Each structure stands twice: as structure tokens, then as C-alpha cells.
Amino acid sequence: xxxxxxMKRKIISFLIxxxxxxxxxxxxxxxVLIIVNDASPDSIEVGKYxxxxxxxxxxNICHINTNSxxxxxxxxxxEEVLKPIKGSLKTGIAYILMTYDTPxxxxxxxxxxxxxxxxxxxxxIPESFNKTYIGETNPYYNSGVHFNPNGKYFLVTRIDxxxxxxxxxxxxxxxxxxxxxxxxYGKCYFDARGLSAGSAYYNSDLDIIEAYSIVKSKGYDCILxxxxxxxxxxxxxxxxxxxxxxxxxxxxxxxxxxxxxxxIHLDSxxxxxxxxxxxxxxxxxxxxxxxxxGAVNEPYASPYTRANxxxxxxxxxxxxxxxxxxxxxxxKWMMCMIGDPLYKPSDxxxxxxxxxxxxxxxxxxxxxxxxxxxVSVVIETDEFTSVKLEYGDGNLKEDEVMKLKHNFDLWDLKxxxxxxxxxxxxxxxxxxxxxxDKFTTSDVLPKGVEDLKAxxxxxxxxxxxxxxxxxxxxxxxxFKMLTAEKVPKLIATLPKDTTYYLDKxxxxxxxxxxxVRTYNKKDILSPKAEVYVMPTELxxxxxxxxxxxxxxxxLSWNKVNSKEVGGYIVLRSKREKGEYKxxxxxxxxxxxxxxxxxxxxxxxxxxxISKKGEEGKSTEPIEVKF
Length: 626
Description:
By secondary structure, this protein is of the alpha+beta class. The protein starts with a helix and ends with a strand. The strands form 9 sheets. It has a 6-stranded mixed beta sheet, with helices on both faces. Strands 16, 17, 18, 19 and 20 form a 5-stranded antiparallel beta sheet that branches. Strands 30, 31, 33, 34 and 35 form a 5-stranded antiparallel beta sheet that branches. The chain is globular and about 90 Å long. The protein folds into 4 domains: about 20-340, no CATH class; about 360-440, Immunoglobulin-like, CATH 2.60.40.10; about 450-535, Sandwich (Immunoglobulin-like); about 545-625, Immunoglobulin-like (Sandwich), CATH 2.60.40. Mean pLDDT is about 90; it is low at about 1-25. α7 links the parallel β12 and β13 (about 290-295). Helices cover about 20% and strands about 35% of the residues. It contains 9 helices and 35 strands.
């Protein structure tokens, strides 16, 4: 009887805990305001992805519209970013989540972290700071309590990275970490420098050593390095938690990150560039880290997010946003928090993953230009995996980054050849799935078009190329698109003896991309020959005549018959491929150049201009020996 009662009590307690966790999760979800940039479809996609994954109300999505996607001026920030956000803030909002393609650098008198200022949306911002300014005291610093929204101060993080897929995966990685991370899940690495007391950076080094002790006391497998050098490639497998330093604007590629991993690198430019470049945060996100913190500009050591405080809170029931800000002494400064604000792996019920991953899809995409020798293999799985790809006679490609989608580019393949493929996918618990498959490359391509040129006219484009003498070539296919479009359309198929094409279905002032390709009897296309062209009323002048007189050179040309033409600009150089200087603007089809030396060679170009002063394309150089 007592056993049954005890079991009932445990079940009831368990259900109470489940309800409390569920309620907390729902409350946290209601407390997030997601910021998307309407100028970027990718930003909207990332924001909506996060909203659905975290069950956030759609009314908690705030739309801004700015073309400043990395750095933004104070004036634009106030109007294009801050104003719509303030209009969307409502009671209960605690977290502001910026998304991919929203600006993260705020330019005032120098570069600051936009997110750090956005924490205080109702505070005024001066147009410049004095030289001694190093931010303000963070009111939430080391408070030791869960963040309580007060409508004045907010915790700002972002889901971001080099691609929209990397940004979206941050929430997937966080959710996985909440379900599976335990003390035995991965290894923890702390890279101090063994500095002596009295060093300017001694306190920062002590913080890292103390962080090691905190994490180790929780039962995690930890490694502490006190050498001055950083970890090197391959030294940090299965990395779960990391804090270390120092190399400026550089990623030390020592880690294979577990799904759910968090790492912070003390570096003055660690978040200088989030979406590319060598910065630590950018490269760590690309390589599969789940959350990180970095500086967009020189922060100095003492205002940097502290190692000991971050892990003290993060491993004791506080989420990523709370832990990051409680570990950061300074606000309105340089630090940028990248990751899901709600990520909290420390107090959830842990599961053991013993189910092999599933391969959802494998696509073999032949290279557009070289389908006979190059193929991209795209592998999608139902959970994060690393992948090994074996193909052909012992060839091996490997991607250690745990991802949902892997892309391998295979080059130097043989035409018209079938390749055997073996795909091995391994998840975070070493569960493995193997798939054997095949793909076949295309036949040998016909030789491509040579000497392709484009002549732009008023409302028409003329394409010219050299005739193909290849026996297997049947003819040519013409493709066209606007530069803003992604996929060209077939507009003409021509016989082999054709060497030009006239397109009158164009609009002046718009840039077009044309590519011309040969095709053979099997309808296999050659690599493309491509030109960019913009038809215009401001066409280059024609019928140029040169008349050499004793007093100088007289240039004359045919009139360009357009109401938009306002005149011409004459340019001159002493070298055909040298710098051409504008020497005269004329309003008739004639120019006389007096300032010449006998025996010298001069080169002229003529540009047609509109009545508004807009310049068209120039003529080819005209050589004149005086």
C-alpha cells in the first residue's frame, strides 16, 4: 500500500513539474518580440521559422524595413529600426530577438553594438560620446535572479550567421540541447593563459580558471589549458562548453561542436563580422556552435562577458539571454549575444537518443556549366549529423559539422560515368545510418560559343558570335534574364550557321544577362558564354570622322536621334588603355582640339549624355596622330 502511495506521489510530483515547465515555456514564448527586416525575404523566413519552433504568437513579430543590414547610422537606426520596435513593444515582453539581415553595428562616433543600445529603447542616444566613454553599468549584471520585464529594459539577442539556414538551425540546436544535454554528453574546454598577478589581464584569466572549476563541479568532463598558445586543430573534439582567448579577428579551428554547444572567445573583434569573414563568432556559427557572445569593436577586457559568471548562471537554471547579460558588466557598449534567448539546457528532463538518424533525401545536382565533370551531392537528415561520403574508387569527402543538410561538391569526374556512392551519417550519440547509392555524369559537352559580344541600341540588343565549326554542334540556344532574376529563360533556338540574334523585347535602362550555348544531337548544352547589357537611348555615337588641320584635330560624328540626348562629352588620353580625362562638353556633333603637340599620338572617346546629365556608354578609343 505504501509503495503504491509513494508511486502516486512521485507521479503527481512529476506531473506538477511537467506543468510548471510547460507553463514557464509558454510564458517565455509570450515574452519574446521577434524583429524581421521586410527588406530581406531571408530575414522574414528566419523570423517565422523561430516563431513556429518556439510557439510564439504571430502578433509578437515586429517588422522593420531597412537596407542597412549590417551597419547602420544613428539617424537611420532611430527611424528605421527603433521606431517600429517601440511601436510593437507591449506588456510582458522581456526579450527582443533580432534575426538574419537585421543590422548589428550602430555607427555613432564609432562602431557600437546595436543590440546593446536596443536593450534601452526609451533612452536617448547622443550624436557622439566623449573619448573616455566605455559604456554604462549594466543594471542586470550579476543580479542572480530571473529577468523580470519592467517595460524599460530588455534582453536583446539574435539568431544570425553566414546563411539563413545557419540562423534557423540555432533554434533547432537549442531545442535539441534542452532535450539531450547531460554531464556525459560532451567535453568542456577552457583556454586560459597562465598569467601572473599584476598582469593587466590577470582577472580575465582568473575568470576562465574559475569557470573551469564551476563546470567541473557540475560533473562535466573538463580540460583546462594554461599555456599562452590557443588550442590547435583537432585538439577539442566533442566540444560542449568553451571559453578561451586570444587571437585578434581569427577563429582557431580546434573544435568539433556538439549540438547545443556554447562557446565564447575573448577577442576584441570576435563579432566584427557575423555573416562572413574570419571573426571567431562568424566561423564558429558556420561550424555548428549553438550560441556565442562576441564584440563588434574593441570592448577592452573588463567590460567583456565574464566566463565564470556566464557558466555559473547558465548551468543553474538561467537561459542564454539571462546568463549572457548577468555575465556582462557593461551596457550600451560592444557586446553582441548570438543565439536563442530561451535556450536553457540545465533543468530539463534528459532523454537518451538511441535511434539512428534517417536520411530524408539525397539529391545529385549536376553543375550547370560542367554537368559532365562536376556534381553537387545534397544530403538531408531528420536530425543533426556529421557525414562521410565515399564515391568512385576510394574517394572520400567528410563534413564533421553537425548539420541537417550537407552539401558536397565533387569535381574532376569522368563524363558519362556511373559512380557508386556510400553515405554514412552519424548523430550526436554516435547512432549511424548508411545508404548506398549511384549517380551518373552527363556525356561530354559540346564546345561553347566563342567571341560573344553585345551591341546595345535604343530599345534593342544585338548579339554577335563566331560560327562554330564543331561537327557535333547542331545549333545555338539563347537564354535571357534581368539581373534581378535568378533563372534565365530560353528565348530562341537557332541553326548552326547563324552568328547573330536581334532582341527587340527589351526596355531601355534595364540590365539584361544573355547567355548563348551550343547544343548537339543529344540536346546537350555547352558551357554558357555570357554578356551583360543595358539598352539605352544614350547609345554611342557612330560615323566618327577625323580631320587633321594645322591648328589641331577636328572630330565629327552622326547625330544620335533621340529626344533624350542633351550633348556629348569628349575624353582624351595619351595611351589607348590609360586614364581618359574629360576635356570638353559639347552640344553639337563636332569638336575641335587645339592643345596638341606635333608628332604625338592621342586617343579620344565620346560619351553621349542626356539632358539631365546622365552618361551613356562611350565609344571605343579613336587613335589620332597629329
